[in-house]
Amino acid sequence: MSYTILFPNYTIGENPFTEVPNICQRYGTKITVIGGKTALSKVAADLEKAVEGSELEILDMLWYGGEATLEHVATLKNNPAVQNADMLFAVGGGRAIDTCKMLAHDLNMPFMTVPTIASTCAACTGVAVYYYPNGEFRDLYLSDVPANHIFIPTQVIAAAPDEYLWAGIGDTLAKHYESVFSSRNDELEHFNALGVNISTMSAEPLVKYGKQAMEDSKKDQTSAAMEQIILAIIVSTGLVSNLVINDYNSALAHSIYYGSTAVDAVAEKHLHGEIVAYGVLVLLMLDQQQTELERIFRFNKSIGLPTKLADLDITTDEDLEKVLDKAVATKDIEHVPYVITREMIKKAILDLEAYNLNS
Asked: Which sites bind glycerol (predicted)?
C-alpha cells in the first residue's frame, strides 16, 4: 500500500500575525478572511496591520454564516471576494473553521486557520463536521488535507470564555485513552503507530498544566501553562487525528457522549468535551485501568470536570437506561479490543458512582 500524510505548520504567540507575510506570500497575494463575527472583531486589526507594507492584500472579511452547512459553503463560493482570492483565512471556533475548510477543499485553494478558542482540534485537521441548517448533525466531510498554516493567538484564546478551554481539555483527554484502547490488539502501520504513540501529548500536558491554565484563563492572561494546554488541544490532538484511521479516533468515551445526548437536560446544559471527560472515566473503569482512573479522576475533580452522573444531570434510572440504549448502539465501540456489552457499560457507570462515594 501507499499513503500520504500531510501536516500543517503553526505559529503561536500573543500576536502570531507578524509572520503572515513571511509564510503566506508563497501562496499568492490576495487574502479573503472568513469567520465568526466576534472572532473576526478580535483579530481584524492585527491581520490588517500584518499585511501593511507587504505584497499581500485582504480583499474582504466575511461572516461564515453562523452554522457549518453546505448551503453556506455554496453562498460563499459565489462571493466575488472568494472567487478572486489566492488563499483563505478561517477564523473562529470549530464551525467557522470547518465551513471555510470545506470551501477551500472544494475550490482547491490554500487556507490558513486562526483558532480564537481552544475547544477542538478543528484548526489542525483536514476533516470537517457539517450540519443541517437547523443545527442538526448531518455528516463528516472527509479530507486528508489540513490547513497550510495555523496562526494561534494566545492572548485572544486566553480572553475567550473559560468554558471553551475547560471543555477542550475534557475532549482532548479522550484522544489518548481512546486511541490506545481501540488500537490495542492491532498490528499498526507506521502512521497509525506514530499517531497512537504521540497521543500521550494529548493527556500528559493536560494533567500537568491544566489546573494552572484554567486559573490563568479566569484572569484572561497568557502563560507557559496556557500555551502548553492550547498546543495539546489544537496541535497534538489534531496531529493524532490526521495520522490515525477513523477507527482509532474515538471509542467508549464518545459512545457515552452520544448516549448522554438522549437525555434532554444533558444536551441542553452540558458541553461536548465536558461529557467526554466523564466518558473517559467510564472507559478507564470498564477497562480496569485502576491507576489511570485514580489519576484522571483527581484531575477532573481539580478543574471541575464531571466524575458522576449527577454532574451531568442524569438523575433517574430512566435517564440512565436512555444513555445505555444509545451508547451501545454507536459505531464508536465496534473497533475495540473486546466486545463491549450494554451490561458492561452499566456496570462501569455504577462502579464509578460507587468510586465517587468512596473518594
From this structure: 171, 254, 272
